[in-house]
Amino acid sequence: MLVTHDQLDRVLRILDGLIRGLLHRGHSVVVGGTEPFATVVTIHGEQLSFAIKEKVTRRDRELSAADQRERQRNPYRYYPKEYVYTATGDLTLSIDDDGVFGVRKLWADTRRSRLENFLNDITFGFARAAERKREQRLDNQRRDQREWERTRLEKMGAIRLEEARIEGLNKQVDHWHRSQLIRAYVGARKASPSAASVADLDAWAHWALAQADRLDPLTPSPSSVVDEKAKYRIY
Question: Which domain holds residue 130?
């Protein structure tokens, strides 16, 4: 509450009537919680804080003769603006929740009616605000879920692409390594010929080195009859 002492009894009567109406409808009212001294209404799990304030008027403070003389002596000095605030006795009750839109959240004294006459409307206003807050919270949750799902799909695509690149790299390294082993094996075989004839060994070595070239990702791949499997539907 932000009111003058003269309005305190009236504010307490308003709060008493409002809280009785809220409790009668099964809602709860507590003071404190996440914000010290805040009065919080809980309706169907949604929390709304509210406050009663007294309107004030503001006018510029009139300068004394001494102030006027001082400003004449020092015209370039910075003088902060000073105001005089006056309490009006008019009260406002507001639901202090910036996350709730599209519903009434402020009631105030008018010339024709006082805040006490709006208590029933205020009580229903809390229910409408709580329902709107719930709708907005669910909308935000659905939006966040859609955004999370969109991000998940993007990440899934990026992860699968990266995994395919890694798998391709591993295959290239394996093939390159196998091609080096084949070439080393051909060299060792030619250095220690078996019972096979030199002509047979040369033909075999030519064929084996071609297989090494087909595996080696850094060497142009020679053709092979194996390349014709798809053409003749041999799987």
Answer: 5-142
